[in-house]
Amino acid sequence: MKYNHWFDGLAMLHSFAFAGGRVSYANRYLRSRAYEEAMARGTISRGEFATDPCRTLFQRVTSWFSPKITDNCCVNVAELADAVVALTETRLPVRFDPDTLATLGAWEYDHDVPGPVSTAHPHFDRARRRHYSYVLDFGRTSTYRFFGIDQATNRQSVVATIPVARPAYVHSFGMTERYLILAEFPLVVDPLRLRFSGKPFICNYQWEPDRGVQFHVVEKASGRVTRTARSEAFFAFHHVNAFEDGNDLVVDLVAYRDASVIDQLYLDRLRSAQPVTATGTLTRIRIGPGGDARRERLSEVPVELPRFDYARRAGQRYRYVYGVGDEVTGDFLDSLVKLDLDRGTASRWHEDGCYPGEPVFVEAPGAPNEDGGVILSVVLDTRAAASFLLMLDASSFEEVARAESPHQIPFGFHGSYIANAGRPK
How does residue 176 score in pLDDT terms, banded at 50, 70 and 90? Predict the structure, then answer.
């Protein structure tokens, strides 16, 4: 198989199930169209984030008229309306059975929501019982298009459109009770260059710091862009949370000085002896009614893959952020961290030779405290040449239990705790 860059391997689902005081583990390849084609050909046939099949000029030109969008959903797992899906940064989520991990087919967005590029981080508004996401439609004038998905009916409808000449790479977006916030970082692309260069997707984007960061605030109810704001240049993959504070909108994200973090995540760099700094700074952007955007560092502790009590605090003022860090040894992602935004303190879990993945917060039923629950993280143990599922008490940040896996589990990005897996649809 030919996978040259980044984490562009074929998507594999991993599942830890809890029952009767025991933990079981299973894995299975996501049998997407990209997977089936790769198995048949012995090489990739669809362009990925940073890897592209070798194609002739004729093939690149014809792909303009008949693009093959990848459905290799290797970024996130989430519940979307009536389905559990795997997602990547295209418009082709793939449904799967959370009990058997069997692939159930594509969960495509409507034709009324055009655009090949999307996000693997949709939001869910509990009060409205509605999911929110966006697509990016490339053209002479490109368009960001926010849309909603009704949880009960699966009905999809466009919320707002925002035209743009040179689109930015946008991995995630913010959501408050009333608003959606799109942050355009100055990592931008010429759509024609993207189509005809023959380079992998992300290699066509250029860093232009003089553009700064543009924030577009969209009202959910009306679809109006109610305010825009601009800040000095920075880059981010992940929004953490956002909320309304009087007339201000508060947007928290993990910020980097520039987009060079992408270069550090190429496979050749990860295999080398060069240091890898894959963590940013938890940063707050306060957008005022007059279009001003003020930046504030919330913590000096390096962090990435941020999570919080999403079920109860999404779009609301919140206190705790959980993430992975690299501050103990400076050696890739070597620790889990808990940041207390009210007290400005940090707690940490670290074990020599262990490299944890994203911390998933699971709330304890009826817990009165925001950190009432547990943290789940898949940890690579280099000493045992295996992995284990770690469970921490989210309040004390001390270990509760661990469950050994039968083999090493490759590093991944994101996952979800699905409380009612196996429930009748």
Answer: very high
Q: How does DSSP assign 136-152, residue by residue?
A: EE-SSSEEEEEEEEETT
- Read off the pLDDT of each residue in 26-48 and give the average, rounded to a whole number: 79
* 133-142, Cβ contacts within 8 angstroms, sequence gap of 24 or more: 134/170, 134/173, 134/182, 135/91, 135/109, 136/167, 136/170, 138/167, 138/191, 138/194, 138/195, 139/191, 140/191, 141/165, 142/166, 142/167, 142/191
Answer yes or no: are the C-beta atoms of 118 and 109 closer than 8 Å.
Answer: yes
How wide is the angle at C-alpha 18 spanned by C-alphas 14 and 23, nearest 5°?
Answer: 75
Cβ-contact 392, 374 below 8 angstroms: yes
By CB atoms closer than 10 A (0-12, 13-18, 19+), residue 198 is middle
Per-domain residue ranges of the chain? 12-324, 325-425
pLDDT in tens, 203-245: 889 999 999 999 999 999 999 999 999 999 999 999 999 999 9
Mapped onto helix, strand or coil, the DSSP state of residue 222 is coil
CB half-sphere exposure, 125, CA atoms < 13 A: 22
Specify the DSSP class assigned to residue 366: T
pLDDT digits (tens, 9 = 90+) for 296-309: 999 999 999 999 99
Pairing of strands 399-404, 373-381: unpaired
First and final CA of the chain: distance in angstroms? 37
Could you tell me the CA-to-CA distances from 90 to 48, 73, 102, 115, 199 in Å, in that order? 10, 9, 21, 9, 17
pTM given for the model: 0.91
- The whole-angstrom separation of Cα 242 and Cα 230 is 17
Find the helix or strand (DSSP H, E) in which 27 lies.
strand 22-29
Q: What would the two tokens of residue 55 be?
A: 């194609």
List of residues 6+ apart from 295 with CB closer than 8 A: 231, 232, 234, 255, 283, 284, 285
DSSP assignment, residue 345?
Answer: E
Quote the DSSP letter at residue 204.
G
* Residue 337 contacts residue 345 (beta carbons within 8 Å): no
